[in-house]
Amino acid sequence: MKLDRRITNLIITGFSGTGKSLVAKAVARRLNWDFLDTDDEIVKQTGKPIAEIFRQDGEGKFRELERETIRKACQQGQTVIAIGGGAIVDPQNYELLAKTGLIVCLEAKPETIYERLFREAAYSPETEVRPLLANDNPLERIRQLKASRQSHYAKADWTIHTDGLSISEVAEEVIRASRLLRRYTPSNDKEKAQSGIDKDIACLVETATQNYPVFVGYGLLDRLGGKMKKAALSGTVTIISDENVCSLYGSKVEGILKDAGFAVNSFVVPAGEKTKNMDYAIKIYDFLVEHRTERDDIIIALGGGMVGDLAGFIAATFLRGMPWVQMPTSLVAMVDASIGGKVGVNHTEGKNLIGAFYQPNLVLAECQTLTTLPWRELISGWAEVIKHGLILDKEFFEFLETNVDRLKELEPELLTRAIARSAAIKAQVVSQDEKEREGKRTILNYGHTIAHGLEAATQYKRFLHGEAVAIGMVGAAKLSQRLGLLPSDAVERQRALLQKFGLPTSLRAKRGNLKLSLVGVTKAMELDKKVKGKAIRWVLLQDIGKVVIRSDVPHQEVLAVLQDMVEP
Ligand SMILES: NC(=O)c1ccc[n+]([C@@H]2O[C@H](COP(=O)([O-])OP(=O)(O)OC[C@H]3O[C@@H](n4cnc5c(N)ncnc54)[C@H](O)[C@@H]3O)[C@@H](O)[C@H]2O)c1
Ligand SMILES: [Zn+2]
Questions:
Q1: Annotation marks residue 448 as catalytic
Q2: Catalytic residue among 116, 152, 276, 441
Q3: Does the predicted model carry a pTM greater than 0.70?
Q4: 152 catalytically annotated
Q5: Which of 332, 368, 384 to mutate to test the pocket of ligand 1 (most atoms within 8 A of CB)?
Q6: Which CATH architecture has domain 198-373?
Q7: Average pLDDT of the chain?
Q8: 9-183 and 437-565 have identical folds
Q9: Distance of alpha carbon 343 from alpha carbon 356, whole angstroms
Q10: Is the pLDDT of residue 192 over 60?
């Protein structure tokens, strides 16, 4: 994606039933721009409904008319253009649209689309029957057709999840996105070439086993092939991804790599922590054997931390180690999991029990992928970002305080800065203590002692990791205060920032069937694998940006802090 192109139009794409036409009309009204719906134009021009064109002349003819209509539409300026659900699949259309407009994709779950198309009058005015959905089992047909187009929708500059939103709310979101994207002007490629420095580099990780760059940026995916070649990577690439991420970005990444001259295979696993185990590792080994993968070939981990850990474990062990690239797509993976080379899988008796330290050859974080990350996952990721400020960088913490609203809106420039800085802090720590032997890496566990206790005591069902870390950090700060280390205003500043990002900062005794026992939490904390002997090594704060490690914290103090955090 190149945002430095000349942008004169706004293009609204997405599957049928996402409200493209109505939203485009509402946006045009608010911006005082022209509105154009390519399906409507075709109907006007031919004097026939779309379904009839399909029936009488076939889909081929319709696509031809669509291409021509899009070509004409793109010649206009200041126009909000709603395009047919399948138009963006055509590479010629995409190229033309991307050249002249910002492309916003409207997303919705298949069930929502079904409801809207077949039950809700408000969404029906879009060009009558969708011929491709006329079928005995329309919901299944929606699922299939949408899945087949998903990678094309992922090429949009911005994605809006419309489930639960009204037309006017979606229109507001489109306008907000277009403002954010226009404000962002990526640094000039020519300037970069002249200075000889790759300005996409957020930091370097320097360890005894490997030195590697971490690239962070908005719209840098297109440069993946070049960066891999610069890192002296050649050979066949095997992309390992999960179903969610692959459906969004798999074919885009594959295409970029092929254009750069790499041969590409892909292996897709189901999404979720349950996949991070030896059974799936063996399936992947079988695939690599079957494809005659060699030692100089490359593994790419495309996904969140789960995929990164699993694919990295494969890279570490197959043929005694292969080159590999981390392409994190979740916030947790960008600022935490993709940096530092901890790879592994879970055992039925415990998380991450089988693994290795095995550094990647490069990390490339395309921040744009965060626009499709589910909201709760995104919020959860901010906890680790805030943690990095709290343990090592007061100025960064203040940057987060100042920009929280714009960061939550994923404003490209600020988002890139926050992720780059957070990744750099993690990189600095792991560079000093690659294998967690010298204690320096321990500071990354700020908030994690209580977090692991909470997660284990609720069978990993109630909290996302970042949510537990947020509560754990509040606990650790309160503990620091009780021990006379940290002033109360710093405790409050930390709590306030976590809350502004939408993270939990207190404990509720019960949610659903998951009752929380504080004794259970402390017991689980003591069983945590990070505890050496009996004393827990507490990572505490002396100030924002300044940690201290203490092994002499009385159990009663911890219990008192937890009790204090339970909501009345
Ligand atoms: N190696 C390390 O140092 C380290 C550090 C922290 C966490 N981890 C591991 O990372 C995992 C947690 O990472 P996570 O939170 O990324 O979980 P995850 O990989 O399970 O991703 C969370 C969900 O988001 C989806 N997703 C990811 N990117 C997306 C995108 N751009 N658009 C839409 N959906 C997307 C995934 O499919 C998944 O459903 C755990 O297994 C944890 O043990 C490892
Ligand atoms: Zn963590």
A1: yes
A2: 441
A3: yes
A4: no
A5: 332
A6: 3-Layer(aba) Sandwich (3.40)
A7: 89
A8: no
A9: 6
A10: no
